[in-house]
Please model this.
Amino acid sequence: MTITRDEVAHLARLARLALDETELDHLSGQLDVILNSVARVREVAAADIPPTSHAVPLTNVFRPDALRPSLAREEVLAMAPAAEEGRFRVPRILDEV
Amino acid sequence: MRELLRLPATEIAAAVAKGDLSAVEVTRVHLDRIAGVDGEVAAFLHVDAAGALAAARSIDEQRTKGEPLGPLAGVPIAIKDVLTTRGVPTTCGSRILDGWRPPYDATVVRKVRAAGLIPLGKANMDEFAMGSSTENSAFRPTRNPWDLTRIPGGSSGGSAAAVAAFEAPLALGTDTGGSIRQPAAVCGLVGAKPTYGGVSRYGLVAFSSSLDQAGPLTRTVLDAALLHEAIAGHDPLDSTSIDTPVPSLAAEVGRDVAGMRVGVVRELSGEGYQPEVEERFREAVALLGDLDAEIVEVSCPHFAYALPAYYLIAPSEASSNLARFDGMRYGLRAGDDGVASAEEVMSRTRAAGFGAEVKRRIMIGTYALSSGYYEAYYGQAQKVRTLIARDFDAAYQQVDVLVSPTTPTTAFPLGERVDDPMAMYLADLCTIPANLAGVPSMSLPCGLADGLPVGFQIMAPALADDRMYRVAGALEAELDARRGHPLLDEVPAL
Model:
């Protein structure tokens, strides 16, 4: 077994997914099968091979630091779940209420 | 003239340019077709009739004024719902974005508008482009026009079904591990994934940023080449966009393939491949031989590890990219009762807004990137990615293009693999290596197996997208000549 149910619950917390018990049961079995399968990459002898993060060699891309128009505030806030006083309104982020 | 709905995009554009057809008439006929058949096919999540007719009127006005029109002006197009469209709903097939109207157009959408194409609406897809059947759409599954009980492929299944059902002459899809080519193959279409960086990803809602690329789904190779040209080019808004001139692709369609070296990938055949699929593939290879291409068998030993490497790399990038869906600035917010903390609201929102496959992939990615497992999983997959790119480099020392079947099987029945993720993942077996290496690849139909289309895949070196269009154009011409008509003439009437 590659992954336990407790580990799956821990991953769900890290990934900010409030999964219920049924989902956790179901996912535990499926993740075990998938991870066992993808673990095949470990059969490849690649100790001295450099990793590829990107198919195209990337260097820093710069642009002139020039003023350009941005979206209007009302347009951006129009799709917000909650907005107030020209800002996004979010639930409390600190412990004190 | 053939029935308007069945005309290639090039012929529609030519008729509009001459004044034989108005863009408004072309658009109305397609909107009527959508109204008539999309209840069965379910290719579209949103139809923008008013927007399409306004765009069409503007094309007709330009023509009346004598302004020059591009080679695809006046042709309707379906847009995959992962591409942002200003003011028009963009859901990515997910509940978490239900009702979202983006404040900006994706660069490819801006470019198709600038080319005079007419967006008809947003095409259905697997949620966040994760899937091979479009059954992972949060809204409804799309059906394959060749057989309504079967999958249209995925994740660009709505785009493919729209074109195969004559609801749109052209469509835009996106391809992270085969999501343009596999639907093209199972729906009997042409579909191309450009060289990574050849087409801007600005406004393509990211699934796996190092792999995602937008591209055309069409009925002919020439249509695909023209649409590919229309969306390609450097974009300062995408830092991974390549700053080279747009390749000339349409000019390659109609050239011969005499003397070209075509490599058949040994590893993309055998166990797991439907015998009739391999038969159609071998017949098409033999045709290229008849056209005086030189056929060579090539070995790419690490392709055997492409699928497991992909299912570590893509979920890892997805787990990071999809962190932005947190219910704070746009999209769904769930469980905000005034008591719960932001973190609790995020977790409830994501649990309510994401479907099963998206959750699976976020979890796999979170696992592969977590400390203690990073080197063994994500790190090792990145090394395998290097070895796959080296296999391509070595192969292209011997040959000009590589070929294989696009998919191991024809379209499977709806529901067959929906509860078996590993079986679903196998649909991308042949298409994934090109994404990992960033090389261009396309699929064109090479016949039927038991009444269902079979796809022929062509892969070329990075930035040599022109080469695959040359081979595809020659093969399409020969197949159509021998058959006496395009394959899509055989799709059952809806």
Summary: The helical segments of chain A are 5-14, 21-38, 73-77. The two ends of chain A are 43 Å apart (CA to CA).
